[in-house]
Specification:
With 285 residues, this protein is α/β, with parallel strands linked by helices. Helices cover 41% and strands 11% of the residues. It is built from nine helices and five strands; from the N terminus they run E-H-E-H-H-E-H-H-H-H-H-E-H-E. A five-stranded parallel sheet has the order 3-2-4-1-5, with helices on both faces. Helix 1 crosses helix 3, helix 4 runs antiparallel to helix 8 and helix 7 packs across helix 8.
Length: 285
C-alpha cells in the first residue's frame, strides 16, 4: 500500500495524472457486481455479501475509502433514477433497512428484474454505506446504460465472420478470466480483491479485449465492431458528463463506484477534461 501523508496527498500510481490546482478529483473505485446480475461478458460469481465475514470486510473497505473524505458519492445506476435511488438511500440512512438485512427492493437498473438482489449490490453495500458513514444526504447515479449490439455486428456474427490475421497478439479467454476472478474472490478479503481489481494488470484486461475483438470486426461498409466501441465510449462520455452535473462549485473530491471495466476509459476521458483529475483508490487499499 502506498504511504499517505497527513494532508492526505500522495504521488499518483503509475498511469494516473497529477492533480492541478482547481480540478475536481474523481476517485475511480473499480469494483465487481456484488449481486451477480450476469450482465457482462465476464461475470464474477459473487458470494453472499450479507454474510457476517463479508459485512466485516465491507466495513473495513468503506472505512478506508472514507479516509479520502469525498464530498459526493456517485454510483453506477441510471442518472434518471435519482429520486428512486435516494428514497432507498433514505431508508438505509434512517435504519429502516439494515445493510446486513435481506430486503425486497425494486431493482434500480433497467436490465435487472430480481427485487432481492439490489440489497446485495455494490451500490447499497459500498455506495450507500460510505455516503451514510460520511453523513451525506444524497448519492448520485451517473450511468447511461447502453447495449453494444448493432445490426452490423449481428450480421457478422450470424455468418461466423472471422477477421483477417495481420499481426501477432494474444487475448485472454473470457472464461479463463472469469474463473481466475472467482478463485481470487474466494481466497481474498474484499480489500485485497479490490486492490487487485484496481491494479494496472487487471484494468488493462477489459480494454485490451474489447479493442482486440471489436476494432477488427467489420468489412466493406459494415463497421459493426467499431460501432460497438463507439457505443462503449459514448456511454462513458455520458457518465463523465453526469459527473459534471453532480458536482457543485467548490467541490474538490467525488468518489465514483463503478464496474472495474470502466476505469481505464474513464481515466482517459477525465484526464482529457481540464476540470477533472482522475484519481486511483490504491493508496487507500
Amino acid at each position: 500500500m502506498v504511504e499517505i501523508s497527513e494532508s492526505g496527498e500522495t504521488e499518483p500510481p503509475t498511469g494516473w495524472p497529477r492533480y492541478e490546482a482547481g480540478q475536481v478529483r474523481v476517485m475511480l473505485f473499480g469494483t465487481y457486481h456484488m449481486d451477480s446480475p450476469g450482465l457482462d461478458e465476464v461475470n464474477v460469481d459473487a458470494d453472499d455479501v450479507l454474510a457476517p465475514e463479508r459485512q466485516e470486510g465491507l466495513r473495513d473497505l468503506t472505512g478506508r475509502l472514507g479516509r479520502w473524505n469525498p464530498e459526493r458519492v456517485a454510483v453506477e445506476r441510471p442518472y434518471d433514477r435519482t429520486e428512486d435511488l435516494n428514497d432507498l438511500f433514505d431508508a438505509y440512512q434512517s435504519s429502516e433497512y439494515a445493510y446486513d438485512q435481506e430486503v425486497e427492493i425494486d431493482p434500480l437498473h433497467p436490465r435487472r428484474n430480481e427485487p432481492t438482489t439490489e440489497c446485495r449490490s455494490e451500490v447499497v453495500q459500498v455506495g450507500f454505506r460510505l455516503a451514510d458513514q460520511l453523513g451525506h444526504d444524497r448519492v448520485y447515479p451517473v450511468d447511461a446504460p447502453a447495449s453494444l449490439g448493432n445490426d452490423g455486428l449481428t450480421a457478422l456474427e450470424e455468418r461466423d465472420f472471422e477477421p483477417e490475421t495481420k499481426a501477432s497478439f494474444s487475448l485472454r479467454d473470457p472464461e479463463t478470466i472469469e474463473r481466475e476472478l472467482n478463485e481470487r474472490l474466494r481466497e481474498s478479503t474484499l480489500v485485497e480483491y479490490h486492490r487487485y481489481l484496481n491494479g494496472e494488470e487487471h484494468l488493462a484486461i477489459n480494454q485490451r479485449g474489447m479493442f482486440g475483438t471489436y476494432l477488427r470486426y467489420g468489412e466493406g461498409e459494415n463497421f459493426g465492431g467499431p460501432r460497438a466501441l463507439s457505443t462503449w465510449y459514448d456511454r462513458n462520455i455520458r457518465i463523465a458528463h453526469n459527473l459534471w452535473r453532480a458536482v457543485e462549485a467548490g467541490d474538490e473530491r467525488v468518489l465514483l463506484i463503478i464496474g472495474s471495466g470502466h476505469v481505464r476509459v474513464l481515466r482517459h476521458l477525465l484526464d482529457e477534461a481540464p476540470m477533472f483529475c482522475p484519481t486511483s483508490p490504491l493508496p487507500y487499499l
